[in-house]
Amino acid sequence: MSSTPASPQPLLDARDVHGGYGSMNILNGVNMTLYADEVGVIVGPNGAGKSTMLKAVFGLLNVNQGEILLNGQPIHNLPPNQLVERGMGFVPQEKNVFPSLSVKENLEMGAYLKPQNVKRMLEQVYEFFPPLVEKRHQPAGELSGGQRQMVAMGRALMAEPSLLLLDEPTAGLSPLYMNEIFDRVKKINAAGVGILMVEQNAKQALAIADKGFVLAAGQNRFTDTGAALLADPDVAKSFLGG
Amino acid sequence: MSHPTNTRNPAYTPKDATQTRRFPLRELVLFGALLIAVLAVYALMGAAYSTRMLVEAACYAILALGLTIQWGYAGQFNAGVMGFVALGGFCAMLFSVPVNDAFWGTELPGELGQVLLYGIAATLLVVGATKLDRLGVPKKLRTVIAVVLAVVLYLVVISLLRDVTSQIQSQAGFVGGFGLPPWVGWIVGGALAGGVGYFIGHVCLGLRSDYLAIATLGIAEIIKAFLKNSDWLTRGTATVSPLPWPTPGPAELGFTLSRAIYLSVTAVVIAVIFFLLHRAYHAPWGRMIRAIRDNEVSSAAMGKDINKRRLEIFVLGCILMGLGGGMLGTFNSLFDPQGYLPLNHTFLVLVMVILGGPGNNLGTIFGAVAVYIIWIMSEPLALFLMQLAVAFGEGTFGWDAPSNMDSRALQARVLVIGMLITLVLRFAPKGLLPEKIKSHG
Amino acid sequence: MNELAFFINNVVIAGSVTGSIYAIGAIGVTLIFSIMRFAHFAHADMMTFGAFMVLLLTTAFPAVGASIGVPTALIMLPLAMLLTALLAVGIDKAFYKPLRAHGVKPIVMVIGSLGVTLMLQGLIRLFSGTGGQSLYVDDRKEIFRLALPFEGARAPIVITEPQIYLFVITLVAVVALHLFLNRSRLGKAMRAMSDNPELAQASGINTNTIVAVTWVIAGGLAAIAGTLLSLDVTFKPDLSFFLLLPIFAAAIVGGVGHPYGAIAGGFVVGFAETLAVFNWNVLLRPFQDSFPEWLTLPSNLAFVGTEYKIVVPFFILVAILVWRPTGLFKGKVI
Fold this sequence. Notes:
The complex is a heterotrimer of chains A (242), B (441) and C (334).
Chain A: E1 12-20, E2 27-34, E3 39-43, H1 50-57, E4 62-70, E5 73-74, H2 80-85, E6 88-91, H3 103-110, H4 118-128, H5 131-134, H6 145-157, E7 163-167, H7 175-190, E8 194-198, H8 202-207, E9 211-216, E10 219-224, H9 226-231, H10 233-239
Helix pairs in contact in A: 3-6
Chain B: H1 25-45, H2 47-73, H3 81-96, H4 101-104, H5 108-130, H6 139-172, H7 182-204, H8 209-229, H9 231-234, H10 250-253, H11 255-282, H12 284-294, H13 296-301, H14 306-332, H15 342-356, H16 361-397, H17 405-427
Helix pairs in contact in B: 1-2, 1-16, 2-11, 2-14, 2-15, 2-16, 3-7, 3-8, 3-14, 3-15, 5-6, 7-14, 12-14, 15-16, 15-17, 16-17
Chain C: H1 2-36, H2 43-60, H3 72-101, H4 106-128, E1 143-146, E2 157-160, H5 161-183, H6 185-195, H7 197-202, H8 207-232, H9 240-253, H10 259-277, H11 281-284, H12 311-323
Antiparallel strand pairs in C: 1-2
Helix pairs in contact in C: 1-5, 1-6, 1-8, 1-9, 1-10, 2-3, 2-4, 2-8, 2-9, 3-4, 3-8, 5-6, 5-8, 6-8, 9-10, 9-12
């Protein structure tokens, strides 16, 4: 299964992934292909294995069968810190900042493995998230939910990832902030970072998605461009609430 | 569903035992080995010595049962067993020692009672002061008043108490006992230990489990400091002996027979405790306790009053420790507050429990007896090995060995106990006779 | 004014001395708590171990200090810190790491650390015996007497040489720790891991390194605390459980997982102890004449006798657990 010479190598290529906590599988054969310039969105009902898939990609739980390739290199079951070195960033849904560290220190932690980049990347992250500049000396725990999400994404960007994994970045945010976050996601993608995110706000997320993956019961149900999925009546009926 | 046909002893079949009973090979082998060890000690050391060892082991088994319900049933770690044991020993002494006429014949008891009354009155006053805000006093002012009042009244009462106690000490030696049968002291000791356990548990059980360990470790040292320094009450380092036995003493029947009778008393107590615990373990109450231990969050969601259950189990464990401490104190016929050591009365019990099988009563009793035999036998062994090392050192290197070799050799046992704890936790965390986990129903 | 000098000697100086020692011990406990999430009961014996290393080295080379005019024990301190740090890392590798790998509950780690404390106790007493020994092997303890600048003040303020070293070393240790935690990459990573271990891992922070660094710092600080304590009085191998309670009380008062809180907590407990055993009669006696006649002060107006000193940290511990279990500075770990 090598890519055709015409199309470049995919950034992320997950093939027939089975996995879960311990030996119990939650994922029963998920396939995903994402290219470097794409935003990928995983949607699906509760318990479909969306976050599980994201965690499997980031090495937080066991992949028992199948393989995951990053830039053609197998990465499944590598520990998270090695994945960070290979260019992957992960923003968990909850507890995604260091509350007692200042905003700046939070960001610095993101570049822990590349301390020489701190200065340059700090500037870039502040460019993506201007509100963080004046808050940079405040403990992250004191920020609002939306600002905290920015810190979390900024922290992940500090390592200059080629692929950024976002677990429900807009959960619990007001619609205003939600749009702002999606806006930033597009901008980050335009700057050359591939993005794979799990979203509950499926419609809005698919609207900015180059690729959408609809999961159900740990398997792919639909895979297409975001726009095509939004237009598909089957998807709309079963997964987007009509 | 029980299967009476598959069990050996239908009377002991718990109602929720769903699994079929296997042949208890492991238990038989272990207890068989234990029996051989006991017989070997009898053959080597003589009947009087060995029976004493068995009585002490039996008393330790009661302590170990107390710890196994706290740690094994409920996952609470009590690092201050020593304190509860000492309380039991103190009560056994206080209630059984003959009445001291040099104290009761004077006006000292009246004065002591007066000071205690002052103490109660002072407590009531301070408690009243904390409620002043209900009369419209601002809260901050109330706190200041209460604190100042507490400090002043405390100083007044403690000075009065110091006066009386030093008089008692100089005129009567110490308050003496009540001249009652020792078992009264055992029961009161259990109750007192339970009361202290209630206080500690009440403070700590809602918090991280580490805090309970810290607090119990502290209270144990405090109880010991109190007993050691309250000469008017316990004669302190001067020690109190002999403590009368509830059974005929060695003077009447000789060592072996009198100790054997005492052993049968302890055996009966253990049997009763064992039976009651067995019933409780399989009753709904026991299932609830284990459910809380194994999954606190979900049992809280099921509406179980976790802290109350935990407090019950903690107090129960402390009561057993007080009781066992009382029986041990009476048997030793000596109350020496300095003789209570964390190593002998806390960590030894801990090793018994984790080695025998936390949560498994039979395993705990096995652990208690087995570890106690090893413990007792290790003393001469440690000395022997040390002497061997010294002889070797002197002969080979001309090493000038320190003179206090004996006390140092005993420190080697501290090392061994510590090593045992860490090794068991790592390689046999469930002990030799693991708790048989059944469905929590 | 003699009473004032007495108060300064017995409360201010004595409280600062005990407070510093408790503070340094409590920092170690609180750091371990914040990174590994368990109460490390072997800490007091690590302190004893550190002091014992100093004793051994000082006994081996008693004359080193005289050449530069510093007590030999102080010169040996860095070496003892290194040895204690190595011991701490080794203990972690041998005993705690396997338990962590099994994913045991924190309370099992606590029991494991009790096992370790017994092993350390046994080893130290096996080699040192159980009696007290002075760390001033060949050196002399200087004692400074400062007269108070008041008329009629005959009693001087007494401060000993080791106490001065103690204050200086405490200050240096605290400043160094502050700089480490707030300026260095490793220190920030340590705080990050204490805040959120999963996220720290997801940021590429190697948690094993942080654990090792924590042990190095805790071991080094334990050696400092143990040595300072032994310099001030004598080296005693059997203090363990008497030190644990005040140190844990200090860590909890300050808010567990909060190094600065631990410092504050250490001084709170240290001063509470000295204030509680101080005989207040000494201060009130000069005013005896102005009291009403019916009021005669008892000669002993101390809250607790020195033999009951251990009640004080326990009382503080219970009070804080009842009223504010997160500690004065809102600890992270409850």
